[in-house]
Design brief:
Number of helices: 6
Distance between the termini: 33 Å
Number of strands: 6
Number of domains: 2
Radius of gyration: 17 Å
CATH class of the largest domain: Alpha Beta
Shape: elongated
Order of helices and strands: EHEEHEHEEHHH
Largest sheet: 4 strands, parallel
CATH architecture of the largest domain: 3-Layer(aba) Sandwich
Strand content: 15-25%
Strand order of the largest sheet: 3-2-1-4
Helix content: 25-40%
C-alpha cells in the first residue's frame, strides 16, 4: 500500500504539528497542503510541497502530481472535508496505536500519550520499536538515567517529526 502512494494531501495544522515531516514525507514524492497561507518562507525549497486553498484544489493538484499513482489523504479536519465532499474513492488504514513516549521510559499511560503510527512505513513502528528497545536496555543496565532518553534522542521526546533514521546523538 505505502509503495503505491505518490502524493499525500494534508492540512496546515498537521503540517505545522509535524513540521512537514522535515521535507521527508512518510510515503510518496509530493505533498499538497490545504492552507490559507503560503509555504513558510525558506522552508525546504528543494522538496515538492504545494500549498493550496481548499480541498477541491488540493485533490485536483494531488491528482495532477500523482498521475496514475495513488494519492493519500491524511485524516483530521481536511480528511473529513474531503470525505464529506465525496472526493474519496477508497478508505484504507495502515496504522497502529503507540505511545509517544514509551511507558518503559517514563511515558504516561494516557490517551494524550497515544498516537496512530504507520506500521509498514520504513520509519514506522518497527524502526521506533528498535530505538525504544535500545534505550530501554541502556536505562535498565544503568548506563543511562530514566530522564536521559528524551534528551539523548529528540525523536522520543519530540516524536512529531517521525524521523527515526538518524543515529542517537
Amino acid at each position: 500500500m505505502w509503495e503505491a502512494i505518490d502524493t499525500i494531501v494534508m492540512g496546515r495544522n498537521l503540517f505545522d504539528l509535524v513540521n512537514g515531516w522535515e521535507g521527508q514525507p512518510p510515503a510518496g514524492d509530493h505533498v499538497v497542503v490545504v492552507s490559507h497561507g503560503p509555504k513558510p518562507e525558506g522552508w525546504h525549497p528543494e522538496v515538492s510541497y504545494h500549498f493550496v486553498d481548499g480541498v477541491t484544489a488540493a485533490i485536483d493538484k494531488a491528482q495532477e502530481l500523482a498521475g496514475e499513482r495513488t494519492l493519500s489523504v491524511n485524516a483530521a479536519e481536511v480528511g473529513s472535508q474531503i470525505l464529506a465532499a465525496g472526493l474519496v474513492d477508497e478508505v484504507a488504514m495502515d496504522v497502529v496505536p503507540d505511545h509517544l513516549i514509551p511507558l518503559e521510559l517514563g511515558g504516561a499511560s494516557t490517551v494524550a500519550n497515544l498516537w496512530l503510527e504507520p506500521w509498514a512505513d520504513h520509519r514506522g513502528a518497527h524502526r521506533k520499536d528498535d530505538l525504544e528497545n535500545a534505550l530501554n536496555r541502556q536505562v535498565c543496565s544503568g548506563s543511562m538515567t530514566l530522564s536521559a532518553p528524551s534528551t539523548r534522542s529528540p525523536r522520543i521526546g519530540r516524536r512529531r517529526t517521525g524521523d527515526m533514521s538518524a543515529p542517537l546523538s
